[in-house]
Amino acid sequence: MFGISASALHPASAAATYDHVASGAGTAGSGFAGFLTHAIGTAVDQSASAEIAARNGLQGQGDLTGIVTSVAQAQLALQTTVAIRDRLIQAYQSIMNMPI
């Protein structure tokens, strides 16, 4: 849609890059990092499928119910991702404001 391929936004590549830079700070498949990787990957995948469904709908292919469902799922995934991001920022700010 915006000229960025879904593979360029794949969370596994971002996690691998982070692991490389952090040099052994943990693997992307374990614990909280794995949860975030999965959540972001799901959001990206649902967004990509919604984009494909919308494109097919504009070309006269596919059914309207499937298109609406796919777009609604992508919207929910995006809202969930934004909520997680907001909570992470709030937690970081709370930790930074703690007295030492």
Automatic annotation (TrEMBL):
Keywords: Bacterial flagellum, Cell projection, Cilium, Flagellum. InterPro entries: FliE. It is found in: Bacterial flagellum basal body. Its main location: other. Coiled coil: none annotated. It comes from the Bacteria. HAMAP family: FliE. Belongs to the FliE family. This is Flagellar hook-basal body complex protein FliE. The lineage of its organism: Bacteria, Pseudomonadati, Pseudomonadota, Alphaproteobacteria, Acetobacterales.
